[in-house]
Amino acid sequence: MGIRDDIFRILKSVDIVVLSSFYEGLSLSSIEGMASGSPFVASDVPGLRDIVEGGGVLFKSKDYINLAMIFHKLLEDRFFINETINNCLMKAESYSLDLCIDNYKYLYLNISK
């Protein structure tokens, strides 16, 4: 897709946001995916696991059967999809700019004591 300035609009238009990486660090795209208001599904790999756990749904990397089962459940189970969306939004909020600034302020103030 190249460089885009409308990623959030695109993410809000999809039924499910998926990040199927084999390796990942601190993934901004996973945070954006969880903040989009769509359910977020990611491969269970180091890096992603820490960000997504408790928010989106994790699947075993390279396990397409497990991924298909998650898709089916998200598309068929309204309670599960709503719960996943709410969990994603709450988890993404923990990475908000305001919260990060507050955490850094707290850290710097306590280091200087």
Walk me through the structure.
With 113 residues, this protein is mostly helical. The protein has one domain (7-111): Glycogen Phosphorylase B (Rossmann fold, 3-Layer(aba) Sandwich). The chain is 56% helix and 9% strand. It has a three-stranded parallel β-sheet, sandwiched between helices. The mean pLDDT is 89.
Please report which band the strand proportion falls in: under 5%, 5-15%, 15-25%, 25-35%, 35-45% or over 45%.
Answer: 5-15%
Give the C-alpha Rg: 16 Å
Number of strands: 3
CATH topology (fold) name: Rossmann fold
User: How many domain regions?
Assistant: 1
What is the terminal separation in angstroms?
48 Å
What class would the helix/strand composition place it in?
mainly alpha
The largest sheet is: 3 strands, parallel
In spatial order, strands of the major sheet run 1-2-3
Shape type: globular
Give the arrangement of secondary structure elements.
Elements (H helix, E strand, L loop, with lengths): L6 H6 L4 E3 L8 H8 L4 E4 L4 H5 L4 E3 L4 H13 L1 H16 L3 H15 L2
Parallel strand pairs: 1-2, 2-3
Helix pairs in contact: 2-5
